[in-house]
Amino acid sequence: MRFAADCNVGKLARWLRALGYDAVYHPRIADGELVRLALAEGRVVLTRDRDLTRRRVVVSGLLRAVLLEDDQVRLQLRQVVRELQLRPERALSRCLECNLELELRDAAEVADRVPPYVRATQSSYSECPGCGRIYWAGTHWQHMHEVMAGLA
Ligand SMILES: [Zn+2]
What we know:
It is a single chain. With 152 residues, the protein is an alpha/beta fold. It folds into two domains: 2-83, Rossmann fold, CATH 3.40.50; 103-149, no CATH class. 39% of the residues lie in helices and 16% in strands. The chain contains eight helices and seven strands. The protein has helices spanning 10-18, 31-41, 50-53, 56-59, 73-83, 107-110, 116-121, 139-149; strands at 2-5, 23-25, 43-47, 65-67, 103-105, 125-127, 134-136. The strands form two sheets. It has a four-stranded parallel sheet with strand order 2-1-3-4, with helices on both faces. Helix 1 crosses helix 5 (73-83). It is elongated and about 55 Å long. The relative contact order is 0.15. Residues 95, 97-98, 100, 128, 130-131, 133 line the site of zinc ion. The site of zinc ion (ZN) has 8 residues, from loops.
């Protein structure tokens, strides 16, 4: 399942990426354009905008859209996971910034690009082929795991 996040739910897009889902997000996109993009790419629209979900293309069932009930990203994430019955199995496999799939790297390959304290404690890394960010199982991921555990 792939997603297109409306302007007002960028944080949710990042969280879905953290769960391993392909979630596009453009901070400034017109409703019509978002709908076209989602239809063309077979994406589920995520929005806080009730009017968008009243469009004929959504009401007719041609385009799936989730109207988010809450402003808090954790509650939004919980709603999406519940409504779409997501079973995230590829968590932490995608860049939070670029939405690209990460590639595994050996410790030696990234040694000169991570802080010494990380090098000393972590052995597995991934790199984003787009922006070159290095990811590892640090405190950030730990926090995300905790939030995800709270989704069940
Ligand atoms: Zn990236």
